[in-house]
Amino acid sequence: MSIRVGPRPxxxxxxxxxxxxxxxxxxxxxxxxxxxxxxxxxxxAGIAVAGxxxxxxxxxxxxxxxxxxxxxxxxxxxxxxxxxxxxxxxxGPLWLLxxxxxxxxxxxxxxxDVSLNSELETVRRLSAEATALGRRHDVVLMIxxxxxxxxxxxxxxxxxxxxxxxxxxxxxxxxxANLGCISGxxxxxxxxxxxxEVAGDLRRRLGIELPIVSGGNSASLSLLxxxxxxxxxxxxxxGEGILLPDxxxxxxxxxxxxxxxxxxLSAPVIEDxxxxxxxxxxxxxxxxxRMPRFDQVPDAPMRRLLLxxxxxxxxxxxxxxxxxxxxxxGASSDHLVLDAxxxxxxxxxxxxxxxxxxxxxLLTAMTSPYVEKRYLDPR
Length: 379
Prior knowledge:
This protein is of the alpha/beta class. The protein contains eleven helices and 16 strands. The protein has helices at 28-44, 60-68, 79-87, 105-111, 120-133, 157-165, 189-206, 221-225, 240-243, 256-259, 359-367, and strands at residues 23-27, 48-52, 73-76, 94-96, 114-117, 137-142, 170-176, 212-214, 235-238, 263-276, 301-307, 319-321, 327-331, 336-339, 352-357, 372-376. The strands form two sheets. Strands 1, 10, 11, 12, 13, 14, 15 and 16 form an eight-stranded mixed sheet that branches. Helix 1 crosses helix 2 and helix 4 (105-111) crosses helix 5 (120-133). It is elongated. The two termini are 29 Å apart.
């Protein structure tokens, strides 16, 4: 199926952010470079890449940059995000990463070319909807390899696959696995070899092609880089490895050209005051039910900057000021406090402070309606 990318959006230029709000700047050229680096190294090993847009909330601009960088498919966990991609003119192939509920079968068939599944009842509903529409819907059966999120146990795969392969309107496209997301179990040559064995067993016993063996997400890239990814893995679902490249994923990212951050957050200073370093008064829980401790904080004056962003917008643990002299103290729902004692008179009232983000922080910033998104294209 051909992929049509909609009209190129008008890009904002650096420095054009709304001065009153937090802003996330998104460098589309950096995303394209990241996608090209990942897909090239994967292609050399016979592996196709689905570009995962879920951390970007199904952004059509981000998806378009991934396609320009060579991803074979686009993938997202949310039907709403797939709808956004369809409406933007991105016609597929689109993968639905989170299994639909039975009640979502009609929407899944309408919006996704492929869905990942582990429940036969849901696939039967997909079959009924696909048949009613005169379509074929492709299914990847997920296999549990130890992380204990979704998936059939390996010894359950044949019975389910046999039933799926017999359903009208459904093609059993392949098998897949997910690791490193909920329990921290990492992909290894050993556990991914189990997935390859399951695929081989299904091909022999069912007499089907089963063209896809999807060996996980960005966490599997380190295995690829080390030359340890088992032969037979021919597909990966990659989001973080493209959007937030790290040297731990692929050796190609050790070059400066690929390490340029695609996402940068900034927020304006709304208060600049010298105050005591330690809170004073009757201590209790904060706004989120926590009991902050300040025993190790020196009892001395501190320059404190208050920024117009908070935990409603950002995962605090994944936020790192670009200026190493600044230190995050804490946040409430819509205020962030920094220790600015080491920066002299820098960052006066109204100036923006810039931050780098990890995956969790990027996810929350993209999801927050209070963080302005600015798409930049230096080209």
